[in-house]
Write a structure and sequence with these properties.
3 helices
């Protein structure tokens, strides 16, 4: 099995990772709020405005979820409440790619390897692309 070696760049620290994750969350939340307000201004406050609010974040969650060891169906959590928390976790994980500090899912296990060099000890590296 050919494994892509990690790049010469080291993983991001906490502050840059937090900034990237916050920008991802804001990049999804702000358009969702704008869509909700546009629907609310045109058709009034109702269930259509609420669905418009969760459409963009749910689509973004479904798109990014496999890259962060989540399933696409986890985007449905936006319908019942914890969607923002799940997306924040996904954004936190996306900011660290291609390195991983979480255990891979069983279907990813064949493509991932545990890094042993002193600079990256304790991290996973995923070779190839997520499906």
């Amino acid at each position: 099995m050919a494994v892509d070696p990690p790049g010469s760049s080291s993983p991001l620290g906490r502050v840059p990772r937090m900034v990237i994750a916050a920008l991802l969350v804001l990049g999804v939340a702000v358009p969702a709020l704008m869509i909700r307000e546009l629907i609310k201004a045109r058709m009034g406050d109702g269930p259509l405005a609420d669905i418009g609010f969760i459409a963009v974040p749910a689509a973004a969650t479904a798109w990014f979820a496999p890259r962060a060891s989540y399933r696409r169906r986890d985007a449905l959590l936006w319908l019942v409440g914890p969607g923002l928390y799940i997306f924040a976790v996904i954004a936190w994980r996306l900011a660290f790619l291609p390195y991983r500090d979480w255990k891979p899912r069983p279907d990813e296990a064949s493509r991932v390897r545990w890094l042993r060099d002193p600079q990256h000890a304790g991290l996973w590296y995923l070779a190839g692309r997520a499906k």
